[in-house]
Design goal:
Blueprint (H helix, E strand, L loop, with lengths): L20 H16 L14 H19 L1 H11 L3 H10 L5 H25 L5
Helix pairs in contact: 1-5, 2-3, 2-5
Length: 129
Amino acid sequence: MDQVNLPDYNQIKVSKYRDKVGIIKQVAAQIEKDFYQFGFEVRFSGNPDEAYDELFSQIIEHVAYMLSQDYHRLILLLYQIDLSEKEILKNELKYPNVDKQQLLSELIIQRELKKVLIRNYFKENPDKL
C-alpha cells in the first residue's frame, strides 16, 4: 500500500486563511454544525473580515458555560470535533498563561479549519484515498 503524503496541517495558522472566503465559509459552517449538535447556536454573518472574531466570541461564550456548568457536554463536543486531550494538554503546557476557555476556543477553530482543509484536499485528490 502506498503511503499517503498529506500536507502538514499540524503547524497550521488560522491567520493564513482569513482572506480565503470559501474556506472561511466552510469552517464557519462546520463550527455551526458541530455546536448545533450539542444544543449551541453559533451564527456566521457571512462577513469574512469579521469571521474569526465573530466565531471566536460565540465559541468562547459556549466553552466558558460548558467549563463551569456542563463539563460532560464539553468533553462530548471536543470528541465530536476530534480535539484530543493530548493536544489540549500540550497547548496548556505551551501557553500556561492563557485562560482555558480562550485556549479551547482557539484550538476548536484550528481543528475545524484542519478538518475543512483535509476534506478539500481529498476532494481535489480522490486518488489519495
